[in-house]
Amino acid sequence: MVRDVTKEELQAALAExxxxxxxxxxxxxxxxxxxxxxxxxxxxxDAAAGKGLPAxxxxxxxxx
Length: 64
Known about the structure:
The chain has 3 helices and 3 strands. By secondary structure, it is α/β, with parallel strands linked by helices. It starts with 6 loop residues before the first helix and ends with a strand.
């Protein structure tokens, strides 16, 4: 399931340890210049192919 979350919802989920991973889908240059602390860079094609994603299909993943 895909849904938008507010900044406050994300902050709460991170604080509660409910987020398995944060993925930055912007370009590598944008990721290198600035990203959310703890985020991993993952290209859109790799994400669509499932590369670099956890085996647990129920894990809470955040993409931006």
